Amino acid sequence: MRGAGSSFGIATKFTVQTFAVPTYATMISYNWNLNSTGAAAGLLAFQQFAMSDSIPAHYGGDITLSKGDKRGDVNFSFVGGWYGPKKDLAAFLQLFLSKMPKPRSAELPGDGTYIGSVKALAEGDPLDTTGRPDGTDTFYTKSLITSESGMTQPSHSRNVF
Question: Which CATH fold would you assign to the domain 28-124+152-156?
Fold first, then answer.
């Protein structure tokens, strides 16, 4: 909230805009186990992909890096939601996947409907929570800010994983 500083704020008004349900929706999930050099190359490839003018408004996604299968390896996950025309999905994915090695797993969970994508995002957690209280998630995250021009190979090629 703007203007609250270190104190608190009270929302007195919300403006909400609704949109029509997409005609097609599915989740995207690709996973690699990479060494640190491969993970650095993957980060650069994703950065080029994300900063390109080819990303349509009906795509939302990210990458996640976590501990790999063995010391020095990185689990590299590319996930997202596609809410555009089904016929355009494969060509869109190739913009990123063509720069990556073969994934160890790849799937497009869901049934092509918006609610199917919501169920896939829920990852097995029931969507009906009327019979139980909300749970608590505990996680750690860190975000690094890069310049608008992005990262370069020398800036992150050290073995930090």
Answer: Vanillyl-alcohol Oxidase; Chain A, domain 3 (3.40.462)
